[in-house]
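Problem 3 from the worked examples.
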Amino acid sequence: MEIQSPKGTRDMLPKESHLWQWIEQIMREEAALAGYREIRTPVFEYTELFERGVGDTTDIVQKEMYTFLDKGERSITLKPEGTAGAVRALVEHKLYAEPLPVKMYYLNNPIFRYENPQHGRLREHHQFGMECFGVKGPTADAEVILTVLKILGRLGMKDLAVKINSIGCPVCRPNYQKALKEYLFDNLPNLCPQCQERFNRNPLRILDCKEKKCQLITRDAPNILQFLCEDCDSHFERLKVLLNERGLKVSIDPQIVRGLDYYTKTVFEIVMNSPRGELALCGGGRYDGLVKKIGGPELPGVGFGIGTERILLELQNQGIAPEEQRVTDVFIASLGEEGRLPAFDLCMDLRNAGLRADWDHLDRSLKAQFRYADKLGVKLIGIMGGDELQKGALRIKNMLDGQEKEVSLKDAVQEIKTLL
């Protein structure tokens, strides 16, 4: 039987690589402009990190993690999200002792979730995320929101909107949870089995349920914004001012609670209007208690994550793509056996000069070499062999206009560089 990639995974093929590199370059540039530096954490972590950080009532921990025992009988989990690993690294390496805020981003970060593969949602996908530690005020919240919007805008995505909410803090959230449970109590038998389990452990998660019957029940649930303490309310109002000051289209959505237990205060989503309806492209929020929960000091944090495959899919749907770069600019063809070694040497010299050059590895005829070079879309072909080789010369053909010229071999690299 032919071996195929596992269900829920996909290959990035060479012809697609320029798309990934284009997206990643824009992400790197915008993160750097905002003072964020790259962090790379392991693909797997001890399972306890996600149980403590993400929360044992979440779908991720309960149903979606790839967890196994290693040869030392230690419970290991493939990374199901990016923030917990970044926080673990912050604590382990005492990055919080550096000048605050500590700003970091991760890129092409493999994420693993065992869920039913859907269009744009894979069991292995890749995330770009930004995390800011040490800022208590809403300026950091606004910064990450504005940065991801700028990234999406540079990629060409339109009709974007920001949805925000506040889910309070340990001071005010218990009062809301009590009111929510009172509202839901009479409808408890009508909730899906999973939400019935959430009722006592984490009723806030019921608002995030995707089951239609649960969404109908929670449609008129108490508004969490009416239960915020003074600190949370002030934080949320100042965030709205910051975003409105930048002229953003911001809407308040009390149903946004995000799917992870570590969030506090601000939660947000970047959505896009499309012919298929409203699509959530990115989500994030504030997690002021997570660093302490993982063993560090009291240190506030805020961040977001966005799936690269989701971005690629939406760019494809909108017909947005950068022009694909040529694989090779100049091809050195060899005529006869006597031309092969000089062609190889010239090709290496061109590469050392910073030019994208290739030659014939397969000992094809000159005609076949031309056909191959044409498929590569090269601008120039250098022909090595025959009378030109005897004279210490190279014949160069411009594939764009068909013109040819003969140059001295000792001047060939500079001449090709000039022509390109």
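Problem 4, a separate protein:
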Amino acid sequence: MKIAIIGTGYVGLVSGACFAEMGIEVACIDVDTAKLEGLRRGVMPIYEPGLEELVVRNHEAGRLRFLTSFGEVADDVEVVFIAVGTPPDEDGSADLSHVLDVAREIGRRMTRSLVVATKSTVPVGTCDRVREIIAAELAARSAEVEFDVASNPEFLKEGNAVEDFMRPDRVVVGVDGERARRTMDRLYKPFMINSYRVIFTDIRSAEMIKYAANAMLATRISFMNDIAGLCELVGADANLVRKGIGTDPRIGPKFLYPGLGYGGSCFPKDVQALIHTAGEHGYRLEILEAVENVNRRQKDVLAAKIERQFGSDLTGRVFGVWGLAFKPETDDVRQSAAIHTVRRLVAAGARVQVYDPVAMSAARAELGESVVYADTMYEAVRGADALLLATEWKEFRLPDWDAVAAAMRGHELFDGRNIYDGRELSERGFAYHGIGVL
């Protein structure tokens, strides 16, 4: 089977490599020639565990190619995925310009029957627009070529995307015809040898499922952070509250960890886009408006705790920051609470020394030379008045606390992810500040 994926960003590249691993011939297409040349040489544009090995192996085997034009494979492929970015516009809506441009290119170049599947996260009704554009382009060149449109949203977690794709808990496919259903079923069957987990729906329901899933996860994060804020005021321990409610099987423990709020490329823009879609139909998603407000407030929690401890003028103060990515196992710093906090500290006059295992280059693009980039986690706390844990990378979980204490000049520790035992650290001489704990 031969397929094309247009867009070699996070979703497109992971999808292409994983499909190729199953023996499918994949053409990944992008207009960024420098990125494609790097991929041909095994240079990854993103950090994702396991991805480099898949890309290199399948490219060398000839199953994964990197091309600049859909026209090069239009005669051969059965399915073409649209996997380009849908960044937020100023009003919070999803910018569909790249998706619709790709639809036009497909309509201009296609020569055989195709299934055109959107993998980009798009608002409900986008597949209808894709269909109209392709049909208009075919009509403009008097071409009679049959095609189907499908919605195939991705549910990949950054840091675990390869595993998620190769062993999915579910695959959602929205179709409106039997031909598209059979084609997509054949494409995903290799991933379902032990348990068939493809959910076929109508197209609009599939488009909504993606947004609803991310909105629910974001809601759980903001709910727990809101409860953590109240816990601090009433003297309860948010860690114990989380455990107490998470053992209820109707609730479950996932995404109930107090912290600095959600970030990355998905949750923030998808919540905004869903709120905007509701507004276009005269409806308010009041719960999601609150979720967004809580998350915006939560990103200031560490900075507020620091100001209460040191005052609003941080001139002459030194802070060591562990973690810059929005979550572990990725170099993605988009909407990162760590970056937001660092900017606030710098604006208040502080010297900030930062370290992240993989996100230093991405962070430098955001922070420039306003901070000191340390080579190790221990170098980041040298001479610091306080340590801030902002991203819970595994290497930060059990540090040499004696070495940390010896390197610092102060003893304040702000745990933005509640991964440390406050009592243990207090016994070691640190003043511990967690989220939702006293």
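Solution to problem 4. Residues 34 and 40 are 10 Å apart (CA to CA). The radius of gyration is 24 Å.
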